[in-house]
Design goal:
It is an enzyme of class 3 (hydrolase). By secondary structure, this protein is α/β, with parallel strands linked by helices. About 30% of the residues lie in helices and about 20% in strands. It contains six helices and nine strands; from the N terminus they run βαβαββββαβαβαβα. Strand 8 (about 145), helix 5 (about 155-165) and strand 9 form a beta-alpha-beta unit.
């Protein structure tokens, strides 16, 4: 089973809108998303995304199985992990790089669970979260693409991912959308 994991932080809302609004209703690969939240329930972001994509968008529920055509969003204050049976789990383990949910936690679990069937996108953000996890996906044979830091609202996160040896390819948002579509059609 193929899986897409996406991570974003500061400036991520605009990047996600550009990236996800172009996906067709029949997009066949499940997407798991971690975006660093300020606070709140996360439902505002889900509603906001729901109005910008034809895909089903919802907050992750512990032990739910991933489905094609859905975007599963990590709830605030919970790490989102992908399990080998195609389900997700939520954790209240310690924050990673001051973040819970953490991109690294999701990415590392995806690398372990699905290896070379993972497509990882690292978008704009103001921390180094995601760099280690993206490297784990690359080492497991998955594909890693990083938003061009020059186009990122906040370039720290994409630069950190690129700082890892061979961590991925640099692309603009429209090209990242093309890679998502190609991955789904491979």
């Amino acid at each position: 089973m193929k899986i897409v994991v996406i991570g974003a932080s500061a400036g991520g809302s605009r990047a996600l809108e550009t990236l996800l609004s172009c996906l067709p209703a029949d997009f066949s690969v499940p997407i798991l998303l971690v975006k660093h939240h300020d606070s709140g329930s996360g439902t505002d972001m889900v509603k906001w995304l729901h109005n910008r994509t034809t895909l089903d968008v919802h907050l992750a529920e512990d032990k739910e199985h991933i489905q094609a055509g859905s975007i599963i969003v990590a709830p605030p204050s919970y790490h989102l992990l992908l399990e080998t049976d195609g389900s997700v789990s939520l954790s209240i383990d310690e924050p990673v790089m001051h973040a819970r949910p953490s991109l690294d936690v999701l990415f590392e679990s995806a690398a372990l669970a699905f290896g070379d069937e993972v497509l990882c996108l690292v978008l704009t953000g103001a921390s180094r979260d995601g760099a280690e996890g993206a490297e784990a996906i690359r080492k497991a044979g998955g594909k890693v693409y990083v938003q061009d830091p020059e186009t990122a609202e906040v370039p720290v996160m994409p630069r950190a991912a690129l700082g890892k040896s061979g961590a991925g390819f640099v692309l603009g948002l429209s090209d990242l959308t093309k890679k998502l579509l190609e991955f789904a059609n491979e």
